[in-house]
Each structure stands twice: as C-alpha cells, then as structure tokens.
Design a protein that fits this description.
homodimer; about 220 residues; mainly alpha; Arc Repressor Mutant, subunit A; Tetracycline Repressor, domain 2; 2 domains; DNA-binding
DNA sequence: TGAGATTATGACTGACCAGTCAGTCAGTGA
DNA sequence: TCACTGACTGACTGGTCAGTCATAATCTCA
C-alpha cells in the first residue's frame, strides 16, 4: 500500500472519530482533544491532517453527505417509475440512518443550525440545493409523462424532502418502534394519494373552508 | 404599575434581547455579555433575573413556544373541518415566522440539536409530543367522522408536522419568493389529495413498484 | 548502520467566557 | 439634609480550549 493510502486511511480514521464525537456532543461542546483521544492520537497529530477544528467538522460532514446524495441519485436513476424513484430515495437515506448514524445526527443538527448562523458551509447549502433540484426534475418528468396530476414540481420536492427528513428523525429519536419498510410505504402512499376519502365528498365543508382559506390569505 | 410588573417587564426585555442574540449566533457562540449589552444592562444585572445562561436560553425558547402552541390549538378548536383546522395550524405558525422570527430560528436550531445532545430540555420534548398527540387526535376524529380515508392518524400527524416545519424553514431561509397563503393552500391540497393522477391510472407501473417495495422491505 | 526525512507528541500560550461579588448610586422617607 | 435600601455595575476569577512548536520516535534507503 502506498504512502498515499496509508495517510488517507489515517485521515478516514480521524474523520470517523470526529463523527462519533461530534454526533454525541455537537460541534461546540466537542473539543479537539476529545476527537484526538477517540482516534487514539495526540492533538498535534490531528493538526497534521486537518488545519482547523472547523475544517475537520465540515470534511466529516461533507464526505458522507456527498456519498449519500450520490447513492440516492444512482438508485433513483436505476428505478423506472416516480413511485420507485422516490421509494429508492427514502430507502437509501434510511439505510444511512443505520449504517452511518453518527453522520446523520450531525447532518440533522447542522441543518437546524442553518437558521441561527450566518456563515455556514456554502458547500452544504449548494449540495442541498442540487439534491432538491434533481428531485424536482424527476417529478417534473413524471408530470410530463402524465404519471401524476399537474402540480408544482419544486413544491412537491420540498414537501417530499420534509417528509424524508421526518422519517430519518423519527428513526434516530426512536419515538416508537420503527419498521423502515412500512414507514416508506406509508410515506409514498400518502404523497401519491393523500388522506382524503375519495368515496365520500366533503361538500358540506366547502363554505367554512373558503372562509379559513381567506383568513390564511390575509396572514 | 406594581413592582411585580416592572421587574416582569424587564425580564421580558432581557428575554427579547436573548432571542435576538441567540438567533444570530446560536447558543454556544453567543455570550452572556452579548445579551446583556444588547439589553442595555450589565452582566451582573442579567444574573439577578436568570440564574444561568442555560436557564435564560430555555426560558426564551419555552415562553414563545408555549404561546405559539396554545394559539395554534385555540385556532384549530375554533375551526370546523379537518381541512380548516390544519390550515389554521399552518397559518398560526407562519404568522409567528413573521412576528417572532428570532424565536422560530432558535426553535428550529434547537430541534436539530436534539440529535446530537443527550441532555435537552425535557419541557421542549414534552411540548412537542403533546402537540403531536393533539393533532393526531384531531385527525383521528376526522377519520371517525369519515372525513378522510382510513389512515394511521399518528403517522399523518408526523408527516403534517414535517411539512409544516418545512414551510417555516423555507420562509426563514427565503429560498424563493414566499406567498404564505399559496404555500398553505398547496400543502393542504397535497396532504388531502396527493399527487397521483386520478384520471390516468398507473397500472403499467405495478410490477416494478412491487419489486422496489420489496427492496425497501429488505432494508 | 546511520543520517536525513517523516510522523508523532503533549506541554504550553493566549484568548475567551460563565458566573461572582465588592462597591456604586438613584430614589425614598424622615 | 442625611441615612437607608436594593437595583445595578463591571472588574475579576477560575476554568476551558483551539492551535503551536520544540522535541522525540520511527522509518527509509544508501
């Protein structure tokens, strides 16, 4: 094995340690000493591989995030229908919740901190936007094929991302017994069919709905 | 005005300053000196009103969160149909995104940090669970009335929360021009009717969907 | 084997910050 | 005018931690 791969391997080991520590304490509460100790090296050594704590953090996050996005995209391209594509997306992400739990915890926390930080990794936002655009594109295609009714692809993609993230969160919080396959099927079913009772119309509700919709408009 | 209300007013002023500062820097990056300076008082004075930085933070978060939850619940009770109740829920929350933006930023960040912290405010989790339970109850009622098709109320409530949070996030990030009323209507429409093209069935996709569903089951 | 190169170490420094407390001062009542 | 009160102040302390660097250990190859 070449020097390159030895040092690359060590780098990855440090990144793994970083993910483990950051996912337990969060960025601010975790110290570089913690990470070094967890990796079984001295702090000075860590600084041979990463120029700062922030860089270490961002690399730990970005490498897995890129891998997950790429895998989800690949699996979606392999699938035929929109249903299957979206199912594949959810499946890949939920698999990561098992195989790379630490990474996902950091990812979810970082997502939240988007709202209270001015300087967040531009890469991260960029990647999120790209993912969103890709899914929106997939939805737009399905719409053109007549597979789904006419809806705004970008808005649907956004809602789908929201639900997807919710699944990950509930999986990680363990709020209840979590059967991944069932959750995926339910989410897909909900997204495609909604909750409305198709047999019994809700005509009697038309009036008050209009009123509430108007209130929403004023807001 | 009584002494009580003077000191209560000052307390509120400090909480406002705390929300402003925490929403810009996050909990860890913000210092108590920042908050005191923003409130126009000395640090020592702040400690007359709050026993610690953490207490200040949690109070700043909890008071608004309780108010928002209560208002949403009240508006939902006022509404008649499930559609109107859910609309009201989204409307109240989006109004908060305008009137109490700082609070919402902190709330979203805190939500994210659930995944990397062991010790989070038990109050917060409790409140989130209660909200979820309430909405799930509302959905269960609608199901009993035959207003919606048979579906798992808790899972629907979870998905609805996810979408609701997504709306808030997109509103705060300003990723695009955001017309609250339109976004609300779209979300409701999506939740009730889904995206499936009711006219053209998707029978041709049945086979491969089964296969992907199976793959998801294995995961 | 040994000299030079590479990798690793951990004590140290300077900056930061939560929380304290001795002292200040505005207001009040006599 | 003066004594008293308690809200308020901000310098200070003890502790933490990111990042550095002089030194040591290990490796490589002639």
């Amino acid at each position: 094995m070449t020097d390159q791969s030895v040092s690359e391997r060590k780098r990855c080991a440090i990144l793994d340690a970083a993910r483990a520590v950051f996912s337990h304490k969060g960025y601010s509460e975790a110290s570089v000493d913690d990470v070094a100790e967890h990796a079984g090296i001295a702090k000075g050594t860590l600084y041979l591989y990463f120029k700062s704590k922030e860089r270490l953090y961002l690399d730990a996050l970005a490498s897995d995030l890129r891998a997950m996005s790429a895998e989800a995209k690949q699996e979606m391209e392999r699938a035929g229908t929109l249903r299957d594509k979206l199912r594949a997306f959810l499946r890949v992400r939920l698999e990561y919740a098992t195989s790379r739990e630490s990474f996902l915890r950091i990812y979810l926390a970082e997502y939240g901190s988007l709202f209270v930080k001015t300087a967040i990794s531009p890469d991260l936002i960029q990647l999120l936007r790209e993912n969103m655009r890709y899914v929106a594109g997939v939805i737009a295609q399905a719409k053109r094929r007549g597979e789904i009714r006419t809806v705004a692809p970008y808005a649907v993609a956004a809602a789908f991302f929201d639900i997807s993230r919710g699944l990950l969160e509930r999986r990680l919080l363990g709020w209840k017994e979590f059967r991944a396959a069932d959750e995926i099927e339910f989410a897909i079913q909900l997204l495609f069919s909604g909750i409305q009772n198709a047999e019994k119309g809700n005509m009697h509700a038309k009036r008050s709905s209009k009123r509430e919709a108007h209130r929403a408009k004023i807001a």
